[in-house]
Specification:
With 303 residues, the chain is an alpha+beta fold. It contains ten helices and ten strands. The strands form four sheets. The protein has a three-stranded antiparallel sheet, with helices on both faces. A three-stranded antiparallel sheet has the order 4-6-5. The protein has a two-stranded antiparallel sheet with strand order 7-8. α2 runs antiparallel to α3. It starts with 14 loop residues before the first helix and ends in a 15-residue tail after the last helix. Bound molecules: zinc ion (2 copies). One zinc ion binds next to loops. One zinc ion (ZN) binds next to loops.
Amino acid sequence: MGAPRPRSPRPAGGAEAAFLPGPPASGATPGYRAPSCTQGGARRAGIMTDVHRRFLQLLMTHGVLEERGVRRLQKHCYRVHGRTAAVEELEDFINNINSVLESLYIEIKKGATEDDGRPVYALVNLATTPVSKMASDFAENELDLFRKALELIIDSETGFASSTNILNLVDQLKGKKMRKKEAEQVLQKFVQNKWLIEKEGEFTLHSRAILEMEQYIRETYPDAVKTCNICHGLLIQGQSCETCGIRMHLPCVAKYFRSAPEPRCPHCNDYWPHEIPEVFNPDKEREAGTSKANKKPSRSRQH
Ligand SMILES: [Zn+2]
Ligand SMILES: [Zn+2]
């Protein structure tokens, strides 16, 4: 996760547009490059069955799903299309699909939510995705509103932009004039489409947007972009050292200080002045089973 990937020689085509012409041909490309979510798993020639195709279709309609949802979706697809088929491990199942998707320059990528580190999977373009290509169903002024929100989020200390600050920029949008009321609805559309997350009237990037646009954001805002001192991935929300200024993702903070009796900055060794956040723990999750589906993870904001 977060490993730099080679720039694609082809321009982005949009995942939907690339997929729609029909089910991808079966058979993997020789010399397939493992996607960033593999952990040294065996590379195998991908054969797409109806189970894989249905899974891909459903994942596409969601855009992004938490791992729990992905596992449910996989089970569902086997139930519908492959009652007698041997069930592949999730990692193999995804690698299999990715080996076929590779020729379309799209990939199912694994990431994690920035606030609590829940694993998520999204279908993303391998080529750099600029705002103008991220979704075909938005008008020019709507995409420009997203760009404005993105800039405010990237420039902020906290990784959040208030709706007031975003709406104050509607007069500067390219394309058709937009009223503030409309702009509010457009922001909600970005939330529904999982490009933005809203918390208490403030907006930040959804992990789908981070997975899809990391490369674009790094290239477009090289001076404003923040990275995590631990995983070196793009950082939108996180904690920072008050002495030397380095930043860490909340899940990276939790992991890094897990067994430290006294948390100290990994860069300057000064005392780490923030509360160590509670984040997603797969072992705890397994113990608790599915019974606590309603439990809300900790949503405290820190920076
Ligand atoms: Zn990190
Ligand atoms: Zn420091």
